[in-house]
Amino acid sequence: MTPLGGPWPAIFHPFAQRLLGLPPGTLLVLVVWTLVWKGLALWRSARADQPVWFVVLLIVNTVGILEILYLVFFAPRRPPASTPAPPVPGGGQGAASSAPVPSGSDR
Q: What angle do CA 50, 51, 56 make, to 5 degrees?
């Protein structure tokens, strides 16, 4: 005989079925969905040095809605992956090639 709710862990039964009226699997999907979006939003707000957004995203739970809004509209855009280095005056090659190369027998 299986417990009330099937194969789901017992931690999901009291909260999901009695308080929310949801099957345990639905609650598990919502928890994973929320954790993924919350993790991404908290990471971006911390990397962008936005402590107010970090605290708001940490405290307010909107099942991922506020986190998605932050990532789409309020998070700073990422800088380009790579930018070419500016050219060195003088070409950069001439100064290095004209320097004398020490030999191993000058000790």
A: 105
Reference 70, options 51, 45, 46, 47; nearest CA is 45
4: left (phi over 0), alpha (psi -120 to 50) or beta: beta
- Please tell me what DSSP assigns to residue 7: T
Which amino acid is residue 28, in one-letter code? L
pTM equals 0.57
CA distance 47 to 12: 34
Q: Do 68 and 39 contact (CB within 8 A), yes or no?
A: no
Owner of token pair 């100064």: 95
Q: Are 13 and 33 in contact (CB under 8 A)?
A: no
pLDDT bucket at 1, cuts 50 / 70 / 90: very low
d(CA 21, CA 78): 41
Tokens of 38: 């919350």
